[in-house]
Amino acid sequence: MQTVDPKIEIVIPNWNGSEMLQHCLQSLSLQTFQNFSITVVDNGSTDDTEEVLLRDYPLVRLIKYSYNTGFSVAVNTGIEKSRAELVLLLNNDMEIAENCLEELSLAAEKYEEYDFFSLKMLSFHNRHIIDGAGDAVLRGGVGYRLGTLECDAEKYSHDREVFGACAGAALYRKRFFQETGLFDADFFAYLEDVDLNIRARRLGMRCMYLSQAVVYHIGSATSGSKINPLTVRLSTRNNLNVLIKNYPARYFVRFGPAILVYQLMWFVFCCKKSMVFAWGKGVWESIQNSPVFLAKRKSLLGAVDKKAHDALAQQIKDAERLAVESIISRRSQDGKGCLMLQLYCKLFF
Q: At what angle do helices 276-301 and 256-272 cross, to 10 degrees?
């Protein structure tokens, strides 16, 4: 799991996930491709993570924090310490198919014009169900993993360009971060990869979905269930942070109706889940943090010309169309109606 001159550096953030981490590392030990190194960045775990790594995986580099720094700081630390030209970010709740790293190595050589890559994520518990096949983005300022909860099908068996990558399983060229900068630590967790994807696309960077590089994802294993006060608060806060930081004024005019529709639907969803307090707390935190993100916005967008803004706006719109089509496909597969989504498409595309 360690080589002198690794081609791929694997960075795994961890917080009290010893059991999952062991399963992840075991799957990495079985890889057909062996020219890689592993760095685990531990966010102040109180379980037996350190003991297990020292005893069973002594070649894994361990970087320890005394407290939970959040996803962004953890992976940024691993990226900065990386010695390889390719950096693979993995959540600790992943099992990696035996040929995955080999496929990544080959793809990096095959697609030299691409700057980052999205892996094929399948459900850990139901392995014919897609967990994510490349990331899209909604005009409302959130990401969507294409294919989520759909049955694996022919359309997900071919490489294709996508808007961005889910940072839970994504490969980046080291130069990528030299140009875009690292993950924004002020996001702490959730939607930091949406922010990074938008920044990368604004700079003209491209992402390729790799259909043969497969991982199996448990999902929400660190934070608990997918819908809880923590995820709602952070998702609400960071959704608004993405908009404030990355959208020039013209986007709020151009995307205004779509943004309002998304915000309304998210609020209704939070009400149904009895998460109004967490939603309100996320809104309030975003308001409190707005001076920080307005300053970042000024720095990011100050030198961007109208042509670049227009190009990104079209990419975001096209990505959302793919996301909506994926949602319709999933709902149709489950025998659910899609009238409101179809109406949305007619009104906004």
A: 150
In a 3-state reduction of DSSP, which class is residue 152?
coil
The DSSP 8-state label assigned to residue 206 in this structure reads -
pTM of the model: 0.95
pLDDT digits (tens, 9 = 90+) for 115-169: 999 999 999 999 999 999 999 999 999 999 999 999 999 999 999 999 999 999 9
Tell me the two tokens of residue 262: 């998304």
Q: Which residue matches tokens 């949602």?
A: 327
Note whether 59 and 24 are same-domain residues: yes
Residue that finishes a domain, picked among 197, 217, 237: 217
CATH of the domain at 136: 3.90.550.10
Write out the residue range of the structural domain in which residue 155 sits: 8-217
The answer to whether residues 231 and 220 touch, using CB atoms and an 8 Å cutoff, is yes
Residue 284: CB atoms within 10 Å: 13
- Six-digit token pair at 198? 């938008």
Neighbour count for residue 309 (Cβ, 10 Å): 18
Using DSSP bridges, classify how beta strands 86-90 and 8-14 pair: parallel, antiparallel or unpaired.
Answer: parallel
Q: Which of 174, 301, 314 is nearest to 254 (CA)?
A: 314
In a 10 Å sphere around its CB, with 0-12 CB exposed, 13-18 middle and 19+ buried, how is residue 200 labelled?
A: buried
pLDDT per position as a tens digit, 183-240: 999 999 999 999 999 999 999 999 999 999 999 999 754 544 578 999 999 999 999 9
On whether residue 224 sits in a domain, the answer given is no
Tokens of 153: 């099908």
Q: Write out pLDDT tens, residues 277-312.
A: 999 999 999 999 999 999 999 999 988 999 999 999
101 and 147 within one domain = yes
Domain count, the chain: 2
Sequence-distant (≥ 6) Cβ neighbours of residue 110 within 8 angstroms:
none
Q: How far apart are CA 160 and CA 210, in angstroms?
A: 7
Q: In the listed set 217, 251, 276, which residue is the last one of a domain according to the structure?
A: 217
- Interior CA angle at 14 toward 12 and 18, to 5°? 110
